[in-house]
Amino acid sequence: MTESLRPSATFGVNVFDRRTMRERLPRDVYEQLLASVEGGAPLDDGVANAVAMAMKEWALARGTTHYTHWFQPRTEMTAEKHMAFLSLDRKGFPLETFTGGELIQSEPDASSLPSGGIRTTFEARGYTAWDPTSPAFIMDDGVGGTLFIPSVFISHDGTPLDLKTPLLRSLAAMEPRALRLLKLFGNRTVKNVQMTVGSEQEFFLVDEEVARRRPDLIYCGKTVFGSLPPKAQQMEDHYFGTIHPRVLAFMNDVEEELTRLGVVIKTRHNEVAPCQFEFAPLHCEANLASDQNQMTMGVMRKQARRHGFRLILHEKPFMGLNGSGKHTNFSLQDSEGRNLLEPSTNQRRNLQFLAFLSALLLGVARYGGLLRASIASAGNMHRLGGNEAPPTIMSVYLGDVLTQLLEKIKEGSFSDMPDKGLLDLGLSRLPSVKIDNTDRNRTSPIAFTGNKFEFRATGSSQSIAGPVTMLLALWSWGMDRMAEMIESRTGGGWDITDAALDAIRQAYREGSIVCFDGNCYASEWREEAQGRKLPLADTTPEALALYLVPEHRKLLDEMGIMSDREIVAYYETRLEQYFKTVDIEMGIFSSMVWEGVLPALSQQIGQEAQALRDLPEELAGQATGWKEDLGRLLGLRQSLSERTKKLEGLRKSLADLDIETQANRLTSEGLPLFEEARALCDEVEGLVSLPVWPYPTYRDLFSLK
């Protein structure tokens, strides 16, 4: 491989990162910008103008013609309004312009994006504001690139209307609390703490020309009916199998483009279901990781079209097959590059590690309902609880060694600990801990995996900003609790070791209610979780209602992450999105039934009836079974027609009701009816001849050319 073809040679070439800024900005401007990024110092107009000038010249040199403030409204997707660099001076001469004011702020329409009632149609004004902590980048569209400027999105009164602003606030809430805890363990030189995140992205690819013949895949991103083929995933031969050549070409192009955007895809492989795959990136700072995951999904969509694929990010696009998630791996890192969730041989750092781990347990035990709410959606409701995804009960898996260690700390006794291949903690009173010396529990929503946690419940189509915001909120609260307990003991004359051990002991006593290392799919665990009084929310409306729990609202408000008004608006936005998503799915289902399934069934009935009439008289007496089959087809047509009409009637009856009633009734009454009608469609598909059936089957979809 030549030097020019190495990925390292093109890494980040389309990113206005620190290396590029250092090359293109005057030294004093660069230093002031870094002070703003790292310390929150205000950015004056002179610096903003200098940065804008350098950014524009860099972008123009790379072939861009437009710029856009790239933001994340509460649709789980991104939004952009492109503006041309080209302008005219007073004499009509063309020139390219981009000022500091244009860099810092833009004004898109805010009235037509989700707001939860904060905005009305006639209140159109909204603003995007540059987020300098996430570098600008160029998205190449093949005919001239566009400069993307990561931004927050707010209404004219400053109320956030996006997912990035709460994430940034939660990061700001976490840092001083983490520093407070670190200083108790003698870390005086640490300047900052950041959360690191890596989100594994699962997805499906099917042939575009086949997918286009299914309205449900086009408009819903999932199939609203479909009968499993004789061979689906039961042979378990797709997982980690040889990657299809066309898929591999797609993956290569995605990785090449992402490399230019500063994103490293470290892992790629076949997933469990047919036509299901996964990308896993390197970890980076949480806000950047959130942006990079949105960039990744955007590049995947674009490259899928170029390669003749339909990219499917829905959590459960094919009933009966594994769905897709976005496993969100997270940890904390200090300014000196140390992973705060990594055990070591240093005495205080291991106590420190256990303190941060205990803080998370405390947070999940007290505010785990916020995590459940953060991953609630129409698609994830069908994925969670299946054998390929964690259940809806928020629990934490620590593994045998850590669990035994914490149990011994709780009891005040450290004898009889396992001694196989352990790292020495350096404390005679504390046994050793080894990184990752137990198996992983794939049924657990939150699992410790050696030096980080993995939150496995995030949906594949989701922005990770929402779940990470809630993780940070409850973890920050736990850090406060740990710091308070340690400080109260050291203030009473205890040394830090005894104080920390006693605080960890108390934290584990409170937090162990969420610890479970067994099979989270087992019915016994659900019964036990009820006894532990853990939040149980099986449906999306139930889960979203957890945002409104008074102590959850109080936490987010006091942390400065969301005001009470913003929390209610966020809840209403998510609930409305859920209702509209399910209502659209039911509408597409009805249209596909009337336009395709029932006509096909009628045609099959007509053909069967005609063939029966044409049967020679001497054979008519042998057609008893045939007549029964025909009766079955007639019965299916009647039942499917009745249930589809009933489903349509229910949807119409909800039109003038409030959103909570709409969502609850659509869930309790509509979904069971929907499932009954879907089962009938699947049965019909198995009885209608292939030339008559109007839509591509699962077998067609899973056969890549």
Helix/sheet category? alpha+beta
Question: How many β-strand stretches?
Answer: 18
Unreliable residue runs: 415-432
Specify the helix fraction band.
40-55%
Beta content comes to: 5-15%
Instruction: Count the domains.
Output: 4
Largest sheet: 6 strands, mixed
Instruction: Give me the number of helical elements.
Output: 22
Shape: globular
**Structural Rg:** 28 Å
Mean pLDDT: 91
Distance between the termini: 30 Å
Summarize the SSE layout with pairings.
Blueprint: H1 7-10, H2 18-24, H3 27-39, H4 45-61, E1 64-70, E2 82-84, E3 86-88, E4 94-96, H5 100-104, E5 105-106, E6 126-130, E7 137-139, E8 145-155, H6 164-184, E9 193-199, E10 201-207, H7 208-211, H8 215-220, H9 245-260, E11 265-270, E12 276-281, E13 284-285, H10 286-306, E14 309-312, E15 328-334, H11 347-374, H12 378-383, E16 396-397, H13 400-411, E17 446-448, E18 453-455, H14 465-490, H15 496-511, H16 523-531, H17 540-544, H18 550-558, H19 564-613, H20 624-653, H21 659-685, H22 698-701
Parallel strand pairs: 1-8, 16-17
Antiparallel strand pairs: 1-2, 3-4, 5-6, 6-8, 7-8, 9-13, 9-15, 10-12, 10-14, 11-12, 15-18, 17-18
What can you see in these coordinates?
InterPro entries: Gln-synt_C, Gln_synt_N, Gln_synth/guanido_kin_cat_dom, Gln_synth_cat_dom, Gln_synth_gly_rich_site, GS_Type-3, GSIII_N. This is Glutamine synthetase III. Helix content is 48%, strand content 12%. It is built from 22 helices and 18 strands. Strands 1, 2, 5, 6, 7 and 8 form a six-stranded mixed β-sheet that branches. It has a six-stranded mixed β-sheet with strand order 13-9-15-18-17-16, with helices on one face. A four-stranded antiparallel β-sheet has the order 11-12-10-14. Helix 13 links the parallel strand 16 and strand 17 (446-448). Helix 3 (27-39) crosses helix 4 (45-61). The radius of gyration is 28 Å and the shape is globular. The chain starts with 6 loop residues before the first helix and ends with a helix. The model is unreliable at 415-432 (pLDDT under 50).
